[in-house]
Specification:
This protein has about 350 residues and is mainly alpha-helical. The protein has one domain: Triphosphoribosyl-dephospho-CoA protein. It has 19 helices and no strands. Helix 4 runs antiparallel to helix 5. The model has no long low-confidence stretch (mean pLDDT about 95).
């Protein structure tokens, strides 16, 4: 544990968690070139780099509150089921929307960061430090303790910033469709918790899968890659971009897959499967960049810029947004662990 975390223990753990979240989101969007994403040298038509910076700052108070409640859970002052995870996620998304007009910048990030922030607060009570294994265990505990009200609140958060054309519809057993006018009632009457709803969606959405696997990709792939590359290069931008490329090379981006697949099938599972097949080339391209040395070698840098240009030509349709969210979560874990640059 570094000196920064030692000082945080003596002052304000929730503030420490908040700053880690804000910085993680800012570092993710600043990473360049992250092929296909908004980054410090590339804007989309309606969503700019500055919109992401505004969102990174605006989510801070909610992440602090999530950590406060995590501390209370650790002290036995609050039951885990009373955390109000869904309302916190909805509040974070709402606050971001108030601070910029650039559309959906951080939905997936808020969905990942909020349980992570609560788990970090609880971990400080458990072990007097944010130890990696305990942090992940507490993330899983936060999700397993969610309620149907949490599910309805997260549905509302998603609808606040997303359209049917972005996410598509799904009619499967286990959770009602987002765009069903009766979905909130069905969640409550069916006693479907947020964990239950995410478990249903985990077959076609990597963010949902993270929430029901103790954030497996972030903890087992993203965070180890981030720390390894940073130790080798002492360059946070290289570490961020290589983490993004590593995740993209091994985990097909479900945001793109869903968009592509919905043009061919209205069945969400079938649509994402078709989409995944069509973007296999993207995972191979990301792996090829890394094989060429990534941002540490001229050939790798040229390949990264070439892929960025190819994806940017899609005007945002080929935006690996889910990969960006997973990269953000990996960065937050690193910062919570004391990563400094």
């Amino acid at each position: 544990m570094n000196n920064v975390l030692e000082k945080a223990k003596k002052r304000d753990i929730p503030e420490y968690v908040m700053l880690c979240a804000q910085l993680a989101a800012a570092l993710e969007v600043s990473g360049w070139p992250k092929p296909g994403n908004v980054h410090r040298t590339k804007d989309f038509r309606e969503t700019r780099f500055e919109h992401f910076l505004a969102g990174a700052v605006a989510m801070g108070p909610t992440m602090r509150e999530a950590a406060v409640r995590g501390v209370k859970i650790g002290k036995g002052e609050l039951d885990a089921s009373a955390l109000g995870l869904g309302k916190l996620i909805r509040r974070a998304v709402h606050d971001i929307k108030l601070w910029h007009k650039g559309g959906n910048t951080h939905l997936g990030t808020c969905i990942l960061f909020t349980p992570l922030a609560a788990a970090a607060g609880r971990s400080m009570v458990d072990n007097r430090q944010i130890e990696l294994t305990n942090l992940r265990r507490n993330v899983a505990s936060v999700m397993e303790s969610t309620t149907p009200q949490d599910a309805t609140d997260v549905y509302e958060a998603i609808l606040m910033v997303s359209s049917e054309s972005e996410l598509g519809r799904y009619g499967v057993e286990g959770a009602p469709d987002l765009y069903d006018p009766e979905s909130r009632r069905k969640l409550l009457e069916g006693d479907i918790s947020l964990f239950d709803a995410m478990k249903t969606a985990s077959g076609w959405d990597s963010i949902a899968k993270e929430l029901v696997t103790g954030m497996r990709i972030s903890f087992e792939l993203g965070y180890p890659t981030l720390t390894k590359v940073f130790q080798e290069t002492c360059d946070i931008n290289v570490a961020t971009v290589h983490t993004f490329l590593t995740i993209l090379s091994k985990v097909p981006d479900t945001f793109i897959a869903r968009k592509i697949g919905h043009e061919k099938s209205s069945d969400i599972r079938r649509a994402v499967e078709l989409g995944r097949r069509e973007i296999r080339w993207l995972s191979k391209a990301a792996a090829s960049i890394l094989e060429k040395g990534g941002l540490t070698m001229e050939e790798g840098r040229e390949a990264a810029w070439a892929l960025d240009r190819r994806l940017q030509e899609g005007g945002g349709d080929l935006n690996p947004g889910t990969t960006a969210d997973l990269t953000s979560a990996s960065l937050m874990i690193g910062l919570l662990q004391g990563l400094r640059f």
